[in-house]
User: Which sequence fits this backbone?
């Protein structure tokens, strides 16, 4: 922290310490679950944040203005800290790190994190008039990153496999483009293999 030195009365030297606020909390990659580890959208409900503050200061996380989780201590040399919240509910949450040292308290800027614990629900499916694509509609926006072609399988009438040439995502609709025609009256089954233990709608 910056230090200023000035002259006081009667030959007294006055040292003034200027405390700086903590950096904006950064959601750790381990807590930022989903197809991206940097989008501050996660399915976790107990979150770890890192940042820097005055070395040796006590850090307390505040979520929506309320203290959450146990306090931690900023490294005396680097000022780095890592603090974990208590269990949070779903929704957009504003997170602030508060640093306290020698009675002085300073707050960081807020970071907004969105917690999404509910998977989208399937609404409907349709086949294009030419029979060469199949669209699935869900209740919320989908992630293009998790929807890889290799994760899907299309079977017609229980045994005929259709090759998927590509997939496109537009908001809440996933469209599978296939190499051979699906005809009216055929039974189509779509299978999806989860690529990870995380919730893939994030």
Assistant:
């Amino acid at each position: 922290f910056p230090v200023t030195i000035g002259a006081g009365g009667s030959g007294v030297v006055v040292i003034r310490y200027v405390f700086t606020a903590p950096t904006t909390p950064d959601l750790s990659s381990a807590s930022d679950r989903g197809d991206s580890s940097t989008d501050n959208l996660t399915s976790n409900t107990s979150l770890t944040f890192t940042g820097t503050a005055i070395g040796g200061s006590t850090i307390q996380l505040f979520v929506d203005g309320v203290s959450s989780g146990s306090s931690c201590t900023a490294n005396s040399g680097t000022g780095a800290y890592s603090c974990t919240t208590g269990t949070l509910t779903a929704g957009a949450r504003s997170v602030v790190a508060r640093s306290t040292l020698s009675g002085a308290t300073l707050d960081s800027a807020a970071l907004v994190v969105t917690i999404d614990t509910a998977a989208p629900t399937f609404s409907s499916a349709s086949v294009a008039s030419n029979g060469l694509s199949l669209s699935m509609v869900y209740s919320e926006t989908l992630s293009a990153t998790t929807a890889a072609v290799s994760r899907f399988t299309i079977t017609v009438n229980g045994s005929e496999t259709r090759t998927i040439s590509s997939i496109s995502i537009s908001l809440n609709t996933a469209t599978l483009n296939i190499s051979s025609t699906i005809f009216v009256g055929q039974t189509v089954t779509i299978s999806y293999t989860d690529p990870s233990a995380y919730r893939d709608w994030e």
Remarks:
- The first strand starts at residue 3 and ends at 7.
- The two ends are 39 Å apart (CA to CA).
